[in-house]
Write a structure and sequence with these properties.
The protein is an alpha/beta fold. It has a single domain (7-124), classed as Response regulator (Rossmann fold, 3-Layer(aba) Sandwich), CATH 3.40.50.2300. It has six helices and seven strands. The strands form two sheets. The chain has a five-stranded parallel β-sheet with strand order 2-1-3-6-7, sandwiched between helices. Helix 1 links the parallel strand 1 and strand 2. Helix 2 (37-47) runs parallel beside helix 3 (63-73). The longest helix has 16 residues, at 109-124. The protein starts with 6 loop residues before the first strand and ends with a helix.
């Protein structure tokens, strides 16, 4: 029996980007994808991801609001590491403000998987 793959919840509103992230990440992680902030919060509450990959701007909320909602649901979710994906020029500051790992958008496969691995490593500390 093999060990289970870490779970990654992808919250990304652009269907093409979401499909690309899922394609890349599903090789190494158990992946579920959603397109809105409310779906991300609901999925996180029921699925218990190990990492949340969060687009900073979703149709129904901003990253900061989503992080606040996730951390308010239950103590376990407050500890789930987050990777913020954004094309914003101040991405590092946005991510640091919510204690997240930054990942620029657009990103390549190495940047994406490295950001998720960094977030997982933080969770194990």
């Amino acid at each position: 029996m093999t060990a289970s793959k870490p779970r990654v919840l992808v919250a990304e509103d652009d269907e093409d980007v979401r499909a690309a992230f899922e394609s890349v990440l599903s090789e190494r992680f158990e992946t579920r994808c959603v397109g809105t902030a409310s779906q991300a919060v609901a999925m996180a509450a029921t699925w218990s991801p190990d990492v949340i990959l969060l687009d900073w701007i979703l149709p129904d909320g901003f990253g900061e609001d989503v992080v606040r909602q996730l951390r308010a649901i239950e103590p376990e979710l407050a500890e789930v590491p987050i990777v913020v994906v954004s094309g914003a020029p101040n991405l590092k500051e946005l991510a640091a403000g919510v204690g997240a790992v930054p990942c620029p958008k657009p990103c390549d496969i190495e940047q994406l998987t490295s950001a998720v691995e960094t977030a997982l490593a933080r969770a194990k500390r």
